[in-house]
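Figure 3 (text version): structure tokens given as input.
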């Protein structure tokens, strides 16, 4: 029986970004240097496949520092942590390694600098997301106010409308954030914005690739985790860009084949914490059912690399 023809559009860039790559490498190098177990506060990145793989190698994932013994190394996730976490680890004389993405650290430094200049911060982000919690935790309570929507901007109560600055979570939708920034500027004309865009290059690049790919596709699949902010944003961006069926799948077994019945083209991309092996798994699942032609939709080339902390480059 002949397989029906299908064009698979493959977004580029997709999948791992430099910050995720660095964070995973930090856990692997820590295990090599100190042996198992190495404790990791929160999922190192939001991807079950990656976390399970590191757990198999000897990483122990916990939610809080209280769950870690004093005598084993602990790693802080790529999303960043409140200032109180490394302070507590230092007070307990723990060995700790901070795997916070350097682009998230940039936002932390920016927030601190504005605060030192007497400005109250507004953060555009998602309540409860580890990155938002970490960034807001860089400053004392009340110094960072969270807004999630344009509507929130209208109701936020500030100390002094003349003394404000804003930062953003790095994994948001570029378009959504632009609307919120416009609302902030309209309500608080003196508000100070980031020196350089807070939304990271990888988030922006993956969204641009989806915008270019979506109009060509009958359906679009985003390989990523349900707790991954940047992956969920890719689904939304795809829908807005003209692909009416856009779904998030953790891996090939999650694909709803009945919903794809009769289609002739599918776009595939992946969030910044999804490994290429899962993308290939999805492509192989389509090859099993269709006569597949793969076309690349490339909108940027990434060659960013972040160094791991010095403590991991030094001999044990």
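Below: residues designed for each position.
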């Amino acid at each position: 029986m002949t397989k029906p023809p299908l064009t698979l559009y493959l977004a580029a860039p997709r999948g791992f970004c430099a910050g995720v790559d660095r964070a995973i490498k930090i856990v692997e190098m820590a295990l090599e240097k100190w042996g198992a177990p190495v404790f990791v506060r929160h999922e190192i990145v939001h991807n079950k496949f990656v976390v399970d793989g590191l757990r198999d190698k000897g990483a122990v994932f916990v939610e809080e520092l209280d769950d870690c013994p004093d005598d084993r190394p602990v790693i802080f996730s790529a999303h960043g942590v409140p200032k109180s976490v490394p302070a507590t680890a230092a007070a307990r004389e723990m060995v700790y390694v901070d795997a916070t993405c350097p682009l998230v650290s940039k936002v932390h430094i920016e927030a601190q600098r504005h605060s030192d200049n007497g400005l109250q911060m507004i953060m555009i982000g998602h309540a409860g997301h580890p990155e938002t919690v970490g960034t807001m935790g860089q400053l004392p309570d009340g110094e960072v106010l969270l807004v999630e929507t344009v509507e929130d901007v209208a109701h936020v109560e500030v100390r002094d409308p003349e003394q404000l600055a804003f930062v953003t979570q790095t994994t948001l939708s570029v378009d959504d954030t632009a609307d919120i920034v416009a609302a902030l500027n309209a309500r608080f004309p003196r508000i100070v914005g980031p020196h350089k865009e807070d939304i990271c290059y990888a988030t922006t690049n993956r969204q641009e690739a989806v915008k270019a790919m979506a109009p060509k596709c009958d359906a679009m699949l985003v390989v990523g985790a349900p707790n991954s902010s940047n992956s969920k944003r890719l689904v939304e961006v795809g829908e807005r860009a003209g692909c009416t069926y856009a779904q998030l799948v953790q891996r090939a077994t999650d694909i709803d084949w009945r919903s794809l019945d009769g289609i002739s083209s599918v776009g595939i991309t992946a969030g910044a914490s999804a490994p290429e092996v899962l993308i290939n798994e999805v492509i192989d699942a389509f090859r099993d059912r269709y006569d597949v032609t793969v076309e690349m939709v490339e909108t940027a080339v990434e060659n960013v690399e972040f160094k791991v902390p010095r403590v991991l480059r030094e001999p044990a």
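The chain has three domains: 5-16+201-298, 18-101, 103-187.
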